[in-house]
Amino acid sequence: MLQKWLKILSQWLLLYGIYQLGNYLASLTHVPIPGNVLGMSLLFFALVSGLIPLAWIEAGANLLLKHLAFFFIPISVGLMAWGHLFRQAGLQLFLALLISAAVTILVTGYTAQRLGRKEVEGQ
Prior knowledge:
Blueprint: H1 2-29, H2 35-49, H3 58-66, H4 72-79, H5 83-122
Protein name: Holin-like protein
Keywords: Cell membrane, Membrane, Transmembrane, Transmembrane helix
Transmembrane segments: 12-31, 37-56, 68-85, 91-112
């Protein structure tokens, strides 16, 4: 049991290190991309290239994903402080979210259909 938790802790430390590397690169290069996004991109490319095998982070990442809902509690509580903004521009925010979600769904569906057709034609 202890060995399992030490493995998960070491995987969390690796993920945290990649996150911090992304923050460092963002502050060093002054790119207009948040450090956490850079860190996630680094992790993605490290996984795709095989530099970091999935087994090195899988158990720790799965535990974080299993309890993902807990990470939204602080965000939700923080949003309560912005009630005045929601009263002033709530409709505009809602419409922007609705339109962007619809565009995302349409583009994703179109892309999936195009890729599906190419796969069928290639067989």
